[in-house]
Amino acid sequence: MAQMELNLDGFINAQQQLKVDGLTLPGVVTIASLSGVDGFSLTYDGRSVNFTEKDLELTIAAAMGTRFALRITPRAELLQLALNLPVSQVTFTGDNLFDDYGADLETFIPQLKDAGKLISFCLDPELGLLKKAYRLQADMVELSVNHYSENISVAGQAEAQEQIALMARTAEKNGLGVAVNGGISFQNVLPLVSIEAVENVVVGRAIIGRSIFVGLETAIRDFKAQVQ
Q1: Are the CB atoms for 102 and 121 separated by under 8 Å?
Q2: What is the SS3 string spanning 7-49?
Q3: What are the start-end ranges of the H helices in 39-178?
Q4: What span, in angstroms and rounded, lies between the C-alpha atoms of 108 and 5?
Q5: Domains of the chain (ranges plus CATH)?
Q6: Rounded to 5°, angle at Cα 218 from 217 and 222
Q7: Which of 44, 75, 82, 211 is most exposed, with minimal Cβ within 10 Å?
Q8: Which of helix, strand or coil describes residue 59?
Q9: Among 203, 198, 200, 199, which residue's Cα sits nearest to residue 187?
């Protein structure tokens, strides 16, 4: 049974771009927690004047102990932030993670593990990348499913789904938890959760879109009912 992780990046963008009165991220997190979300994730780069470290702290506090994954690039100042914050997981994101940050990751990951943080990587579903995450002692991987979700061909979707399933099973056999992320919607999620190795579904924009019509609580409950 897959769990539902609500990615908050889209909510930050909606708040900043649409200037929605009364839309606060801690408020969204509180409603989502009470609506049964299993976890949250949020990307933070420390460079935005519109979303500060204080905003991040308030957002995490509103999660009320629900699993929270902080998504960062492997930079020293962000590592220190992750060590200090009460987050349960650190998910490394970015292009060329292993080539550009290999030495940093080898230094950072033991520190995070010593602090009790789980380690994940956002990856394309490729065997070579899985091997690198495994060698760095990751706890889980988050597989990009954009090639599946953006494919308009039935045959193309089926091929992409099979690749995702193969990589998910491979990760699971090697002791890695598996999450999926990337363009996941109410319409395309069922084939993904039918993959037994997938234990976590990361969704954001689909919830925002649905909540406009039915409200945030109903949107979350409807999606969670699908993934379970």
Answers
A1: no
A2: ECHHHHHHHHHHCCCCCCHHHHHHHHHHCCCCEEEEECCCCCC
A3: 53-62, 76-84, 97-114, 127-135, 146-149, 154-173
A4: 25
A5: 3-227 (3.20.20.70)
A6: 120
A7: 75
A8: helix
A9: 203
> Is the Cα dihedral 185, 183, 42, 195 positive or negative?
positive
DSSP 8-state assignment for residue 121: E
Measured distance CA(154)–CA(19) in Å, rounded: 38
Residue-level pLDDT, tens digit, the chain, 228 residues: 899 999 999 988 877 655 555 668 999 999 999 999 999 999 999 998 889 999 999 999 999 889 999 999 999 999 999 999 999 999 999 999 999 999 999 999 999 999 999 999 999 999 999 999 999 999 999 999 999 999 989 899 999 999 999 999 999 999 999 999 999 999 999 999 999 999 999 999 999 999 989 999 999 999 999 888
Report the distance separating Cα 210 and Cα 219, nearest Å: 6
Residue type, 72: I
Q: Give backbone dihedrals phi and psi of 152, rounded to 5 degrees, phi first.
A: -95, -5
> Positive or negative CA dihedral for 94, 43, 11, 89?
positive
